Amino acid sequence: MPEIALYLSTDKHLFDYLGLQIYLSVSDSKPLTFYGRSEYDTRISKAVIHLKEGIYKGIDILKVGDFEELDENEKRQLMKLIDANLSDIIKYWIDFYVYKKEVPFERILKPII
Predict the structure, then answer these.
(1) Chain-centroid distance, C-alpha 4
(2) Are 57 and 73 spatial neighbours (Cβ–Cβ below 8 Å)?
(3) CA dist., res. 82 & res. 85, Å (int)
(4) pLDDT score recorded for residue 63
(5) Which among 86, 99, 101, 14 has a CA at the least distance from the CA of 54?
(6) How many Å from the N-terminal Cα to the C-terminal Cα in the chain?
(7) Could you tell me which residues come within 8 angstroms of residue 12 by beta carbon, excluding any fewer than 6 positions away?
(8) Are 29 and 10 in contact (CB under 8 A)?
(9) What is the mean pLDDT of residues 95-113?
């Protein structure tokens, strides 16, 4: 099993939400790709946001290499987190990859409904 700390060592940590961590990958510049990681172990999944002509069309949650995937509850939380913060997440992606700007980290303490 690969070492998760090494895999995410150069990535940009964006959010913490109820034990779920969201990252931008420095080495993966594919449009609107983010990574969700369990704070408590080595589970990780990739979230790809799909837009068509600038309109949000959905999210795919994908497996990452040889890592164990997030469990179903964590995947639902990841999708909720992205849905609730979609405009900020897209802005952070553009700022980070297009404008090479620093993006903020946020710890979300309120439940997302």
Answers:
(1) 15
(2) no
(3) 5
(4) 94
(5) 86
(6) 35
(7) 23, 24, 25, 26, 96, 103
(8) no
(9) 86
Q: Residue 99 gets which letter from DSSP? A: S
- Helical (H) or strand (E) element with 89: helix 86-97
Phi, psi of 86 (to 5 degrees): -55, -45
Among 47, 42, 53, 60, smallest CA distance to 14 is for 47
Helix (H) or strand (E) holding 37, with range, is strand 33-38
Take residue 94 and report the two structure tokens written for it: 């553009």
- Of 38, 58, 39, which Cα lies nearest the Cα of 48? 58
Q: Which pLDDT band holds residue 24 (cuts at 50, 70, 90)? A: confident
Average pLDDT, the chain: 86
Token couple for 28: 């993966």
Report the C-alpha gap between 96 and 26 in whole angstroms.
9
Q: Look at the block and give the residue holding tokens 């994908």.
A: 62
Give the pTM.
0.82
Q: Which positions ≥6 away from 88 have C-beta within 8 Å?
A: none
Give the model's pLDDT for residue 8.
59
